[in-house]
Amino acid sequence: MTDALSASGLCKRYRSTWALRECDLALPAGRVIALVGPNGAGKTTLLRLTVGLLSPTSGSIEVFGSSPTTNTPQALARIGFLAQEHPLYRSFTVADLLHFGASLNIRFDRPLAEKRLASLDIPLNRKAGALSGGQQSQVALALALAKRPDLLVLDEPLSSLDPVARREFLQTLMGAVAQDGITVLFSSHVVHELERVCDYLVVLNNGCIAIDDDIETLLERHKILTGPRSDVHDPMLGTVIEATHSDRHTSLLVRDGAAIEGWQEQPAGLEDVVLAYLRGGVAMDRTKAAA
Ligand SMILES: Nc1ncnc2c1ncn2[C@@H]1O[C@H](COP(=O)(O)OP(=O)(O)OP(=O)(O)O)[C@@H](O)[C@H]1O
Fold first, then answer.
1. Do both 198 and 93 map to the same domain?
2. Ligand 1 center to residue 10 CA distance, Å?
3. 20 Cβ below 6 A of ligand 1
4. How far apart are CA 32 and CA 152, in angstroms?
5. Which residues contact 269 (CB under 8 A, 6 or more apart)?
6. What is the pLDDT of residues 236-267, one digit of tens each?
7. Final residue of a domain: which of 206, 232, 264?
8. Interatomic CA distance for residues 213 and 203, integer angstroms
9. ipTM of the predicted assembly exceeds 0.85
10. CATH code, 43
11. Ligand 1 mean position to 156 CA, how many Å?
12. Are residues 252 and 277 in the same domain?
């Protein structure tokens, strides 16, 4: 099966700033993929390259096997994009926006968008500027989903939403994924909320890929070991991603470690794993599915 997104040696530079460096990616289709990383890690840059709004400085990126800058109506129709600020024309009514969407997109499914908005009690005759922030996000999402894209790209869709609006937004998104089997790629800072909705994770750190893996596999491969304080270099421990020491104990987050006598083992949470990789500045090895 063709990957939803593949990149090879992908680099992007803005003047003297390298936003992405030598990124290799192979993101499977039909998954909900979270893109995580600290401020300035390169997430927006990667998403804009994915939707063809930017071109690589060097290296390549393909979406479903084609360059996203091809710009044919067919290629563009396969990708939906919700930008970070999801701008809506504030003086337009929701109905105007749907009309606009239908005239610009060859696969636009207006009845689908109307049904979604009706189920959320968002009136079609209301001006976009008079909607709450959560409702505006829902309208932007309904417009993006009505394109019936094969890949939906969302840049920090949750950042401006309160917890209730966040939950509603994610429910709408998950409903669409279940119904249409689309691939979703979205960036976020909120790691603990991702485990419920995502099944694949990409972590960017300082323009480089730190993690690119299936979340279930990632959690199977990592664990926390706690034992007597020591400087451990035992190969049985696997790869030590992060070590913390108290007066009497050492706690290790390890990848592919075996059970060791005298050490207690605990499963690692997704946030533990992500933060350990970010703090340690390490990259996942590339043996993903081999584990
Ligand atoms: N138009 C631009 N001109 C110059 N530098 C830029 C431009 N856009 C981004 N950068 C730089 O590229 C790097 C990556 O930025 P990017 O916006 O992709 O990161 P991000 O992970 O999305 O950050 P955030 O989480 O803060 O939104 C940063 O150092 C940023 O300052």
1. yes
2. 16
3. no
4. 9
5. 195, 219
6. 777 889 988 898 999 999 998 887 788 899 99
7. 206
8. 9
9. yes
10. 3.40.50.300
11. 14
12. yes
Residue 291, pLDDT score: 37
Counted domains in the chain = 2
- 11 domain-assigned: yes
Contacts of 263 (CB under 8 A, 6+ apart): 225, 226, 227
Verify that 169 and 86 share a domain, yes or no. yes
- Atom 5 of ligand 1: nearest residue by CA position: 14
| 44 CA closest ligand 1 atom index | 22
Task: Return the beta strands (E) in 15-123 as ranges.
Answer: 17-27, 32-36, 58-63, 79-82
The pLDDT of residue 118 is 93
Pick from 206, 230, 245: which residue ends a domain?
A: 206
| Distance from residue 231's CA to the centre of ligand 1 (Å) | 38
Domain assignment present for 211: no
| Cα of 85 from ligand 1 centre, angstroms | 15
Does residue 190 sit in the same domain as residue 242?
A: no
Q: How many angstroms does the Cα of residue 14 sit away from the middle of ligand 1?
A: 9
pTM: 0.91
CB neighbour class for 104 (10 Å; exposed up to 12, middle 13-18, buried from 19): exposed
Give the 3-state secondary structure of residue 194.
helix
Domain that holds residue 278: 216-290
Q: Could you tell me where the beta strands, DSSP code E, fall in the chain?
A: 5-14, 17-27, 32-36, 58-63, 79-82, 151-154, 183-188, 200-205, 208-214, 222-228, 239-245, 249-255, 264-267
Q: Which of 10, 12, 14 to mutate to test the pocket of ligand 1 (most atoms within 8 A of CB)?
A: 14
39 lines ligand 1 (CB under 6 A): yes
Is the CB of 41 within 6 Å of ligand 1?
Answer: yes
pLDDT per residue as tens digits for the range 160-173: 788 888 888 888 88
Is the CB–ligand 1 distance for residue 89 below 6 Å? no
Q: Are residues 57 and 146 in the same domain?
A: yes
